[in-house]
Amino acid sequence: MRSSRRHPLLVPGLLCALAVLAARPTDGVEGDGGSGTALGPQVARLYEDAAKATRQYEDGRREAEVQRSKALEYERLLDGQRQEIDAMHEDLGRIARAQYRGAGGLPFTARMLLADDPDELMRGQRAVSRANLTVSTAVGKSLRAEKRLAADEAKAQAAWQALDKRNADLVKLKKEIEAKLGSARSRLQGQADASVTAGSCPGAVRLDQPEERAGPSWVAPVETYELSASFGSGGSRWANRHTGQDFAVPVGTPVRAVGTGRVLKVTCGGAFGIQVVVQHADGYYTQYAHLAAVAVDQGDRVGPGQWIGQSGTTGNSTGPHLHFEVRVTPETGSALDPVPWLSRRGVPL
To answer: In whole angstroms, what is the distance from residue 273 CA to residue 333 CA?
Structure first.
């Protein structure tokens, strides 16, 4: 069974400018000599930048759609104005033809001399003049309105064309960031695998934490994910049944402490690869396994949402994911289903 739930990334603000975004990922990423103390933070920064570029692109795409809708509405209004103007021109033509036929082609002075009722002829002429003036005024207003609408339409089209160009630039930039991110993730995982093989856990790589703000007491262990293997499910990878909930996430995804606690241990090797176990005040323990890097040391105090490591695929793992457990003791074999456990604490998955 596979289910998914999307959560927005907690990254500080949207891009202020393309130049800012373009500059950050290149800092120390290329030619860093494979330094383990640098790769983790670089992956985290690239991870954030890719998310920002995606959000910026989506915002620009929505703006472009709004501008397109405005341009289409202007075009519709212009069509209506043109139809009205055409109808007015037809009315003017009919009036002119009627005048000519009624007068038999004679000048107005001659018609006055020959008319049986000159006063009636004058009243008729005044009515026709008023009609001509009314139609001419209406035509003038319509022409001015058409000019304004055409100018507005041109502005709207220019606006969404500019947005399209900006979005194209963002797509290109996002691909560049993701390419660098893929390379950095691969090297980070390679370093993690080497540490596990050697049986020596890498030291904590401190990450720039997300901006602190008042929030819930309990959170999900990752922010954007798809749920994969669930608690109690069977499979050839486990000796008995699956003892936790898996979150399918790319290598290098920041892993969060789900609540306030103390880091009980950081270990590597064995089925879980690199892992962190956190002790909580209510007597429960949470485990975060198959990591590529850790950002805490044993004994550290952590709070809900604090980044304690980065996901990977170390140990007995068939692909990048976070294995998350809730236990009643620090050791394997005391796990309980983490999904209802988190749900009771206000964290639906």
So the answer is: 17
